[in-house]
Amino acid sequence: MEWTIGWWQISVQRVYPTKAQLSQTYNQAASWWHQHLQLLGYSYAYRELWRSLKNADMLPHSQDKLTICDCGIGTAAFSLAFAQMINPQTHIAGVDISPQMLNKADQKLALAKVPHQVYQSDVNTLPFADCAFDAVICAHTLEHLPNPLQGLREIVRVLRPGAPLILVVTQSGLLGWLIQWHWGNQCFNQEQLSTLIHKAGLTQLQFIPFPFGLARFTSIACISFKRS
């Protein structure tokens, strides 16, 4: 944005946290993050989201050995909800830039006896081979990337043909702006997210509403699939 006032030109440009800053921010939040999500109703909302997808028969739940990548796993709230509602024997590969978040995720998944392994990495450079996963799940991570399309294309790379991406992002609006002000992320509306997803090469996009609660007003959830 630019304004001209008399002989002065004033500009404002959006900046994003560096990887080191983002890691430090979430390291500091790791000790209370999981309880925070539970108190705000996100853990319940995540379970209901998985219930909706299961009832719609849109997930690869019939295989004995599913392998799923959770990009931006945090303290594993999204993965734990998946394990509870879909398949507790799914192997979770959890990726996060914050080592403290990964420590918490490792503890939570181990306590729940969910097969898993955690990796400290940036979503833009996932440490996995092409077509490695039966699904990728990603909650409130894409909005932290300066170039979200790059991150989506990297996610598509590690998906098997025909496999789904289940994505949750911060929604544009007043509450989204308040979250953005504190955490330095960006927000999306459905049109913006749809454009990004199609550019990344994903198809069959469907948006899934959250149940009544805070997540319904702060977040957008959707599922899309890698071309076969």
What does this structure look like?
This protein has a single domain (18-28, 38-52, 64-226), classed as 3-Layer(aba) Sandwich (Rossmann fold). Helices cover 41% and strands 22% of the residues. It is built from eight helices and nine strands. The radius of gyration is 18 Å and the shape is globular. The protein starts with a strand and ends with a strand. This is Class I SAM-dependent methyltransferase. It comes from Calothrix parietina FACHB-288.
Describe the protein's topology.
Elements (H helix, E strand, L loop, with lengths): L1 E4 L2 E4 L7 H21 L2 H14 L11 E5 L5 H9 L5 E6 L2 H13 L4 E5 L14 E5 L8 H11 L5 E7 L3 H10 L6 H10 L2 E7 L5 H5 E8 L2
Parallel strand pairs: 3-4, 3-6, 4-5, 6-7
Antiparallel strand pairs: 1-2, 7-9, 8-9
CATH superfamily, by name, is: Vaccinia Virus protein VP39
Number of strands: 9
The CATH topology assignment is Rossmann fold
What is the terminal separation in angstroms? 42 Å
Write down the domain tally. Answer: 1
Helix content bin:
40-55%
- List the strand order in the largest sheet: 5-4-3-6-7-9-8
GO molecular function, one term: methyltransferase activity
Domain Methyltransferase type: 70-166
Pfam family, one: Methyltransf_11
Organism: Calothrix parietina FACHB-288
Short précis:
This protein starts with a strand and ends with a strand. The protein is built from eight helices and nine strands.
Keywords:
single chain; 228 residues; alpha/beta; Rossmann fold; seven-stranded mixed β-sheet; two-stranded antiparallel sheet; 8 helices; 9 strands; 41% helix; 22% strand; Methyltransf_11; methyltransferase
